Amino acid sequence: MKNSFGILSLAVLCMVVLGMVSTASAQGRGSGRGHGGPPAGSQGMGQPGGIGVDKGLGISSERSVGRADTGRETASDRSNRRSDAGLDRARLRSDNARRANEELRAHPYMAARLHTTANDLRNGYQAALLTNPNLKFGQYVAATRLGRNLGSRHPNITRDAILAGLANGKSIGRTLQNLGLSEQSANAAKKQAEREIREAKKG
């Protein structure tokens, strides 16, 4: 009787152990499916948006780095140089125009004594700066006065002709000589204009 009871107990114990092993195995297989990949019919769900696009852009950039990227950098460099030069010219024009306004305020009677107006000098100077941003206001006033003093006897000597010479890097004296005056006459005309401008600034 005791032997039969022992055998029965052993059999029950074996069945329990086998059941536990089977359960653990089933859980392991289920867990493997869960972590190994998405369930059938849900492929790609849960993937962060844009990963595929970013990867494609990265590959495209790598493939074109020797051509497209270099071309863009070259174009940017060239554009920046043109842009920087344009900004420098605009800044120079602005600074010169500001100094002209300061000079006109400091000498409120100058324009009238030179038989013109402050607005005419200001507007004409700003227009001339578009062609020659390096032009000084004193040079513009001198060219204006010389054109008035010499134009009746020398029709080709005008303010615009003198300004064109200055824009080409010539001095006022050299420009007057290029327009037909002798060196002596050019110097005398220049000194006369400078004297008249100094007198106009007084008071």
Write a structural description.
This protein has 203 residues and is an all-alpha fold. It has helices at residues 2-36, 51-106, 110-113, 118-131, 137-150, 159-167, 172-178, 183-201. The longest helix has 56 residues, at 51-106. The protein is globular. Mean pLDDT is 77; it is low at 1-5 and 21-61.
Write the layout of secondary structure elements.
Layout: H1 2-36, H2 51-106, H3 110-113, H4 118-131, H5 137-150, H6 159-167, H7 172-178, H8 183-201
Helix pairs in contact: 2-4, 5-6, 5-8, 6-7, 7-8
Name some characteristics of this structure.
8 helices; 78% helix; disordered N terminus; 203 residues; mainly alpha
Count of individual beta strands: 0
- Distance, first to last CA: 143 Å
Which term fits the overall shape?
A: globular
Largest sheet: none
User: What proportion strand?
Assistant: under 5%
Using only C-alpha atoms, the radius of gyration works out to: 46 Å
Helix segment tally:
8
How would you classify the helix and strand content by structural class? Answer: mainly alpha
Helix content: over 70%
Mean pLDDT: 77
Low-confidence stretches: 1-5, 21-61
Order of helices and strands: HHHHHHHH
Short overview:
The protein has 203 residues and is mainly alpha-helical. The protein is built from 8 helices and no strands.
